Amino acid sequence: MKIMEKILHAALNNNSACSKTAEGGLRLQDIQKHSLPDKPLVTVITVVFNGAQTLHDTINSVMTQSYKNIEHIIVDGGSSDTTVDTLQRYNHVVDYWISEKDAGIYDAMNKGIAQATGDIIGFLNADDLYNSPEAVEKIVAAFVSKQYQAVFADLLYVNTNNLNHIVRKYSSKRFAPNKLAYGWMPAHPTLYLCKEIFEQYGVFKTDYQISGDYELVARLFYKYKISYKYLAMDMVKMRIGGVSTRGWRNNILLNKEILRACDENGIHTNLFKIYSKYPQKLCELF
After folding, report:
1. 36, 63, 226, 250: least surrounded by Cβ within 10 Å?
2. Residue 224: CATH number of its domain
3. Is the pLDDT of residue 216 over 80?
């Protein structure tokens, strides 16, 4: 069995006791997108749970991209609000969506990867939206120019109720694989990877609660030394209040998992190094 088939099998059967509650999208209408000679298919994966208030912004952000060969996959964790109603309203736009219980955010992301058919894969979750209609077009141009394995850019944290109010800017420019020991990584919502990377090196580890994205970055960029390109642009807006920024308890867990991820991928670090990044993060507020 090929590795992507194994991923799909594991992702869809991870909660064997839970039955599928709903699914839809263009695929179920026998409409399937493909890569073209000059326009590789980009898969954008959105993970959502009780995100009805913001999901429409995310979908519209994908719809209005200037680059048109995009496959949008949405994985809902069995929401109890009107998220499924929103998904059904966009059946004619979203390529595939599914709503069922999962084992956490990284399990949901893996389900999205398993369903992806694009040559390039990225994530735009239900609290996020692109900062520019040209964002995906610039991502693709970078991949095509020198065939990088990864592309990333900068992230804007914005006020939940005012998307034009920038609270903080996360610059990915400072990232290099040797900075992982200090807790630095590219802004995950801006990170796009070739599909073959997941096929060769695996997907998210689902036993991480908060830092599964950091572990994946450590594995790919440090352990396997994939090639990458930084784009000097504000690619994504993220509403404040994500799981990794909700209070000091989550912050402690975040850094404990970063320590673990470094250990698992041969990166020598300690808590002093990891916490040394916070004075620099404070500068991002000004």
Report:
1. 36
2. 3.90.550.10
3. yes
